[in-house]
Write a structure and sequence with these properties.
Elements: E1 17-23, H1 30-39, H2 52-57, E2 62-63, E3 69-77, E4 80-88, H3 96-106, E5 111-117, H4 121-125, H5 127-137, E6 145-150, H6 162-172, E7 176-178, H7 186-207, E8 210-214, E9 217-221
Parallel strand pairs: 1-4, 1-5, 5-6, 6-7
Antiparallel strand pairs: 2-3, 3-4, 8-9
Region (Disordered): 203-224
Protein name: Ras family domain-containing protein
Biased composition (Basic and acidic residues): 203-216
């Protein structure tokens, strides 16, 4: 595993660099999911500064001026080496400061992973507001999304059914995956790898517009659909 430090923001990302933002309300497991993927291991509480575990991994976390965690990791997806940059803003809040912070970093992200916990209906209900904010920022244009149901290991505490997750993803027209952040395996890697694939499709769609005849006028629109896995 090779991790790189965060570079300055660019308007256009190099072809092999994919920038994504991961979002979810309090208790959704966003930070744990991200760090298990980046570190390829799980620890109960890696966020307590000063602890031996945190000190061991702290050099892998790049804090911005706004205490936003940014990670970069080289991975191989579909026989291609890519660099995935993951931006973790922590728990989603509705206050003015939280909104301003998201807008500051949102414009540089190509795709968005929206995470909820299967043990929290509140985290599930909060996703619509997060997605609407992103779409409003992008003027309702096609945006790559991946819906992630976390804490799949807590099945006995489940309050959000698998069907509800599938139906939400269907209404958003995006992939839906479940994961357990306490184990580094394919289920952890899956959402991040799928996010890269969705960004790829969005890029390809932007390069290949579809032209529709409407009387004497021609209308061009980009394709960026995603599918349910």
């Amino acid at each position: 595993m090779k991790l790189l430090t965060r570079t300055k923001k660019q308007v256009t990302n190099p072809p092999n660099i994919y920038k994504t933002m991961i979002l979810g309300t309090a208790g959704s497991g966003v930070t744990t999911l991200t760090r298990t993927f980046i570190w390829e291991c799980y620890y109960d509480d890696p966020t307590i500064e000063g602890s031996p575990v945190y000190n061991h991994f702290s050099h892998l976390v790049n804090h911005t001026d706004h205490q936003v965690d940014s990670y970069r990791k080289r991975i191989s997806i579909d026989n291609e080496q890519v660099i995935l940059e993951v931006l973790d803003l922590g728990s989603y809040t509705h206050d003015e400061a939280g909104s301003a912070l998201r807008k500051l970093y949102m414009k540089d992200s190509e795709g968005f992973m929206l995470v909820y916990s299967i043990t929290s209906r509140e985290s599930f209900r909060g996703l619509d507001a997060i997605r609407s904010e992103i779409l409003d920022d992008r003027n309702r244009s096609a945006v790559p999304f991946v819906l992630v149901a976390s804490k799949s290991d807590l099945e006995e505490q489940r309050v959000v059914s698998h069907q509800e997750g599938e139906e939400l993803a269907l209404s958003w027209e995006c992939p839906y995956l479940t994961t357990n952040a306490t184990i580094y395996d394919d289920a952890i890697q899956g959402p991040f790898e799928q996010m890269v694939r969705e960004i790829r499709k969005s890029r390809e769609g932007a390069k290949t517009p579809r032209v529709e005849e409407r009387g004497d006028r021609r209308k061009t629109r980009s394709l960026g659909d995603c599918m349910i896995l």
